[in-house]
Structures are given as C-alpha cells and as structure tokens.
Amino acid sequence: MILLNTRYSGLLKIAIIGVSLLTVGCAATTRSIDPNESTVHYDASYDFSDKKEIVNKLTDSLMNTTLMGRESAKPIIVIYGIANETAEHINTGGISDDIRLKLIQAGEYRFVNRKQRDNTLAEADFQYAGFVPPEQRIIEGRQLGANYILAGTLRSIEKKQPKQWRLNRRKLVYYSMNLELTNIQTGEISWADNVEIARESSQPIIGW
Amino acid sequence: MALKLRHCAALLCAALSLQSCATTQVISDARHQFYEGNPNAAIEILNSESVSSRDELLLLLDKGLIAHTAGNYRESSLAFLRASSLLEQLNIVSVSQQSKSLVSNDWASTYKGELSELLWLHSFQMINFLMLGEPEGAAVEARQAIKLYNEYNDVLKFDHFTRALIALSLESVGDYDGAFIEYKKLFDDSNESPAVASIALTLAKRLGRENDANRFQKALATHYSNDTPTGQTGELVLFAQTGAIQPKEAGNLFISDDMFASFPIYPDYFTPNVHVDVTANNATIEPVAINVQLVDVSRRALADRGKRIAAKQVLRLAAKKALVDIAGKEGEAWGALMGALMVASEQADTRSWETLPAHFSMIRIRLPEGINDVRVQIHDANQTHDIVLHNVSIQARQRTYRSFRLGAGTPTAESPIQPAAAVKDAVVDEPA
User: Is ipTM strictly over 0.85?
Assistant: First the structure.
C-alpha cells in the first residue's frame, strides 16, 4: 500500500494541480467597472461607452450653441425621441434621457415631459371628477408650451470582409447620430450636430 | 497495435455515446404538445428543462414560434432575440465538433440552422414587433433580413412573403424609400405579381416614381378591378400560418456492401401553393395575398450547402474506411466490429425547425372606417381554413394587424390563444 502511495503520489500531485488550475480558470468572476473610464468593446456593435460618447459630445455642443444668447428666457424643449435606423435593437430612449438629464442639470434649458402627458391629463381629469377638494386641484391651462423640438436619428452602416480564405472574420461598423433642435414657431432648424463612431472587429473563424 | 486499435474503437464508441441521433427529448415532447394544440403546455416543457447545447438553437426557435402561436408576442420576441444572439456565437467552426462528426455523423455538431430558418426567425420577429405596436423593432429585424437577402439572394428570393413583410415593416416606420426598393425587388422576383403591384402602386405614386407606377399599373390592369371602398379607409393585415412544414428525411447512397453515405433531404412531393378568398361585409373582394410555401425555400437552402455536405461526406467515408482497414489488419473480428460501428454511426442529420408552418400568407384588406365583418378562406391542397372576424374596428388611415396559425398546430379550445389586440401603426396612404 505504501509502495503504491509512493508510486502514485507524484501523479496525484500533478492531477490535483491540474484540476486546481482548471477550476480556477473556469471560475465565474464579477468585477465592477467605472462607466466613465471604461472603453472596452467586446465586438463592433453599439455599447454603453458609445452612448456616453454620443451624449457627452452632443450635450457639449448644444450647451455651447449661440442659441442661448438669442433667447431672453430659458428655452423650453420637448423631446420627440431618436429614431433607430440601424440593424440592431438599440434603446435610443436611453440617449435622449441622458441628454435631457445633462441639460437639466446644467440649468440652461427647461423641458416639458411629453412621455407623461397622458398621465398628467388623466390626473387632472381625476382631480376635477369630484374626488379632490377644489382648493387642492391644479389650475388648468398652466402647462408650459415648448419652443423647440429635440429629435434625432441613429444610423449605421456595416461592411463585412468579402468571402475569401482567411482565419478571421472582419467587420467594420459605422454609426452616425444626428440630433437637431427645431423652432416650433418658425419651423427653422435652430441647431444641429452629429457624432460619428467607426469600429472594426475581428472574430476567429476556427475555434476549439 | 492492438492497443492503438482498442483506443480507436473506444474513442469511436465514446464519440457515439456522447451524442444521440435524435432531437433532444424535451424538444420532441414540446413539439408533440404543440401539434396536439397545447402551445402553453409546450412552452412549459421547454421552460422546465435544459437541452444539449447542440440543440439549443432548435429549442429557442421552437419556443419563439410556439409563444407566438399562443399570442405571447413578448415572450416569443425574447426567445428569438436569444436565438439571434446564439447564432452570433455559433458563427465559428469548432475543431472538436468537426473531428467528432468526422468519425461519427453531423448529429455531433451544434445545430446552426438552415439559411431559410435564419430568415424566418426575422419574419416572426417582424410580426411580433408589429403585433406589439413597436414598428421600430420590426424595422430593425427587417434590416437584418435584408442583409440575408443581399448575401443569399439566389436562395431566399423565392420567399416573397418575407420580402413583403420587410417592406411593410419599413413602411410602418415611414421609411418609404426603403420599402419601395423592397417592393420593386419583390415585383421582379415574383414575375410581376399583380398582388405586389397593387401594394407598390400607391407608394410609387406617393414617391413620384412615374415609370414604376406605370409598370405596376400595367400588371394590375388585367387582374384587379378598382373596387376599393369609397370614403375614409384603413387596412387590415392578416398574417396566416397554415399546416406544418415537411420534416427533413434521410437519403442514403450505397457505395459498397459495407459503406454508405447518409445525408439530409427534403422529399420532393408536389404540393400546390395556397389560394385566398376574402369576403368583407358580405361582399367578395379581391384580396392582396402574398404567400410562400416554406419547404420550397428550405429545399433550396439545403441544396445551397449541398456541396459542403458532400465534401464532408467524402472526408467522413475516407476516415471511416481507413479505420476499418486498420482494424481489419488486426483480425477479422476487429474489422467486423469497426465496420459495424461505422455503419451504425452513419446517420443523416435530419434536425430542423419542425414547428414551422407549411405556408405563410400575408393578406392585406382595405376596409371602410368603422366596424367590419371579415371572412378569409385559405385553400391549401388538403383543406380550406376559415378565418371569421366579427366586429373588426378599422380607423381611417390606420393599419390593424392580426396573426393566426391554422391547421396543424392550431391551439385547441382548451388552450386558447391570448386575445391579440388589434394594433395600429403608421398612417396608411389612401389608394391613389
């Protein structure tokens, strides 16, 4: 028995080390990353760092526009959303929400909440239906009227490497995000800007 | 040498034992429930157990389709999104799986779907998003389907239904130029179909494409009477799936007494395409129906990868023959054992998305504003499927969608589909 142990102890150690290494290699891990610093892209498709880049560039541009100097009061904006014209399911509501948040925090613009319009109407109707004492009811006809519509479009163009003998599949994706501010009274586009992002990814064709 | 041979035999047995030449039991059970008319029971089965990673795509495709049939468009959409994501990951040639399948069969490989099935994943998604009132999602799926058409047009151009669905999805988000391009391609691919012409004509006039409008008008002239309802109108769009697609079968090619190749085929039975009749408010109207017989496209998709299947078969036969020869040199018994293993392992990979219907139809009916009674009859080779819709509310310049499964796979009364609200989307042009 002792002889057997001696003979196999080396093998046993190697096996234990091997299994340990495999186990460590396969262990699930989780770590927090700073969304302000991370620019990790796992593939060429749209991700949260793209959203940050788009939001920051467009918000800076909008805050530096000469529009501010022309207005005596803070402009009132209604957001009509960003159309997704890409081939990916991208929630563009996240982009417009973040732009609105930054502009509100900067204090240069005022916003009317279009998404809550049906709810505010329903709430007003409820208050005037006899359930709420008259002195506690909101006064009708005091909603803000927007001066500008903020709307935009996200587009993408994808180009794949032609079929040929190769070990990697390469893909080039170009995103273009346009945003514009339209004067509701005149119909004039008072401000417009865009952000472009181009990225190439490579994926191996052969794997284990 | 005998030791090496034992290793070879053991490896082969292991390869065979690691896979079974049948679709995972969970999927078979769910399909059985689906075709018994119990989509909700089928979903429960698919949700309750996991399947081999080799069949995961099939599970997600079946789940998406069954949830769609049950009227649960959100769940269906999520399953198909997972299937799309999985397909991205499967876009790689696995050395281990290819090696295993080289000495056994293609059941050892992960199922990656036929081209046609990848397209229909997007078709279902477009319908899901339209039914959910999210035309932007439908347009995203439409753009993904366009990529497939662009890459594999020779195979997929025969699916007129999906091309029409792409155009409809783009139209619903106001991308009229994009929709018009698709209608034009469809018009050409469908040998100038009057049904396509009737849809495209309105758009051509709107976009000021006079030459195209004249072409469409010419194709229409002999087929359609100008009997669209007067006054304010809207449109009812029905998506109908009828019957069940033929499953793949094994085709065998005998090379010698002890060697044969087995490969998947779609049997070439002739079945006529469907024909649609529509009655609205007790008056017969000329329907605009665009249909596809799915097996026709699947057969072409399978044939498209026929060269790759054949090349792999040749390699597999060579590998198996070599193993049998080596075994034969060690003795007759070894040779016979190896030969038997080779024959036993030679089985065609007949996996496919078997819950698909036999036909897809898109039926577009222009109706007067207000409450309408509509009856649609879809005639296929074996039977007539009746859709009777009472009190269909149509709003002027709005589009209303409904989706149905008829024949095989129709939910029974005990397992009713969730009521699908009529969903309205973008403004519809009045016919010019």
Answer: no
